[in-house]
Amino acid sequence: MGEMIKVGMADLKVCKAPDNLTTIGLGSCIGIALYDPVTKVTGLAHIMLPDSTSIRNNSNIAKFADTGIKKLLDDMLKMGASKSRIRAKIAGGAKMFDIGSSTMNVGDRNAAASRAMLKQLGIPLIAEDCGKNFGRTVELYSANGDFLIKAVGKTPYKI
User: Fold this and answer.
1) Is 29 a catalytic residue?
2) Beta bridge partners of 5
3) Phi, psi of 113 (to 5 degrees)
4) CATH fold of the domain at 4-158
5) Is the pTM of this model over 0.90?
6) What Gene3D superfamilies has UniProt attached to this entry (predicted)?
7) Among candidate residues 154, 1, 18, the one with its CA nearest the CA of residue 91
8) Category of 89 on φ-ψ map: left (φ > 0), alpha (ψ -120 to 50) or beta
């Protein structure tokens, strides 16, 4: 069993089996898991906002869906992953506060931006666990691509 590598908020990491990746506290944020089943090169990004172009101080590329997913893909390709084999799973995007206004629902916008960027890059999204009103901790296993979702008061489940 390899090491469990922590991915912080607005951060991204890549690894290879037997190492695995985890990120805690996905509220409105999205955990983006990318996986190459042949090389077992695995990547996880914890993005906070949908779009870097609408923010002036956007030097942290891992913070945004558009730039974070591209960087995650690039890092995986450098480690030997093949773009044609990479598959994606996403989790998070919760509506943590009922504020009434859908324009303020960052979770939905993060999920939509993540889906759009994956589509633009030609990476199939094969599973997702987004929305609802609870935070998630996720663990991504590089041996088989399992994406384990943990939430307070719920039985952990894989997508």
Assistant:
1) yes
2) 21
3) -65, -35
4) 60s Ribosomal Protein L30; Chain: A; (3.30.1330)
5) yes
6) 3.30.1330.200
7) 154
8) beta
